[in-house]
Design goal:
Elements lengths: L1 E4 L5 H11 L1 E5 L5 H13 L2 H14 L7 H11 L6 E6 L2 E7 L4 E2 L10 E13 H4 L2 H6 L6 E4 L1 H16 L7 H17 L2 H14 L4 E3 L18 E5 L4 E8 L4 E2 L2 H8 L12 E8 L2 E2 L16 E3 L3 H9 L12
Helix pairs in contact: 2-3, 3-4, 8-11
Length: 333
């Protein structure tokens, strides 16, 4: 069982008791001796409605109108706590979580202090910032102003995840899991594209990051100046930077071999006047995983290693650049 329980009375003494003796109180020190035993026994043996009726009757017997049906519910929940149950304790701006280690009993109250019934606990996590770690659904539950409230299985799962995040110092507003999900979904989207669409998307990405001239060379046009295996799928000129990026694109679902690298290495001579005066950089973009160690990739003639962008990396680059997906990318004719 998970219970949210507020320390709403004798605050200083109650907090001290919890900290120093690992005892969580609820009050009701007016119920002593046989009356306390009666309430404890009833909580163990009775259903909630039966407990409520007897609690009100006890109030009539001792002429105390503080023993109401509504307040009986709070005491009943508290006295039903058992070893292994967990209690979430709201505090100002923070939460504590503890685990019950024994059965509730009537505390031997100091004079003038209402400790009442207590339950032994051990602290699991303390000082959990509400702002940093409490998600919206649990925050709504914490708005409940009564002494305590049963928490359901969904709340239990939420609390357990919250404790892990608190331990790892990962706040609820951390965007990392959401970003990872977005990247994964975009990567799966890339795998659905055909080769031409994949190249067109890469071309559009180049334009989005500042390319002022792009081209997807025809598959039927081969340069007479380059080796027969030389090939690039996308060219992107950034004239203000005096560079051109040559891309070899592979839409693979498993491993990618070194063929794309060899095609880029063989592309040494540019015949198009739009690109020939620019310093070349070469990218190998694959949705698969490159089968070689990227540190072992040979250098091109300019002494620059080919940049390998593999697996989900290109999807991540699309996310980080704020790339806007739309059908116009593929509808140019």
């Amino acid at each position: 069982m998970y219970l949210m329980h507020r320390i709403s009375h004798e605050n200083n003494a109650s907090v001290k008791l919890l900290k120093e003796e690992n005892l969580l109180p609820i009050g009701w020190s007016m119920l002593k001796g046989e009356k306390a035993e009666r309430v404890l026994r009833n909580a163990k043996e009775m259903e909630q409605h039966e407990f409520r009726d007897d609690f009100v009757e006890l109030g009539n017997e001792i002429n105390n109108d503080w023993l109401t049906a509504r307040r009986s519910n709070y005491l009943y929940r508290f006295l039903k706590l058992d070893k292994g149950d967990r209690v979430l304790i709201p505090k100002s701006g923070e939460l504590d979580l503890c685990e019950v280690t024994g059965s509730p009993y009537a505390y031997d109250n100091p004079e003038g202090i209402d400790i009442g019934f207590v339950v032994p606990v051990r602290m699991i996590s303390t000082g959990i910032s509400r702002h940093r770690y409490v998600p919206a659904d649990l925050a709504s539950k914490l708005k409940y102003r009564g002494t305590n409230l049963y928490l359901n299985d969904k709340d239990k799962d939420t609390i357990e995840k919250m404790i892990i995040k608190h331990g790892n110092k990962v706040p609820v507003y951390d965007f990392t899991p959401t970003r990872e999900s977005i990247v994964k979904n975009i990567h799966n989207y890339l795998l659905q594209l055909n080769e031409r669409h994949f190249e067109e998307l890469i071309e559009a990405y180049m334009v989005s990051i500042g390319a002022d001239a792009t081209e997807i060379p025809s598959k039927n046009s081969k340069s007479q100046k380059n080796n027969s295996i030389a090939d690039v799928d996308v060219k992107a000129a950034f004239t203000t930077l005096d560079i051109v990026i040559y891309v070899q694109a592979k839409r693979h679902t498993g491993k990618s071999d070194g063929k794309g690298i060899r095609q880029l290495l063989a592309y040494k001579n540019e015949e198009d006047s739009t690109f020939e005066h620019l310093e070349p950089f070469k990218w190998f973009i694959t949705t698969g995983k490159f089968s070689e160690n990227t540190a072992d990739i040979p250098q091109d003639e300019q002494g620059e290693r080919i940049r390998v962008i593999q697996d989900t990396e290109f999807a991540s680059m699309l996310v980080d650049s704020g790339f806007v997906f739309n059908d116009d990318i593929f509808n140019k004719g």
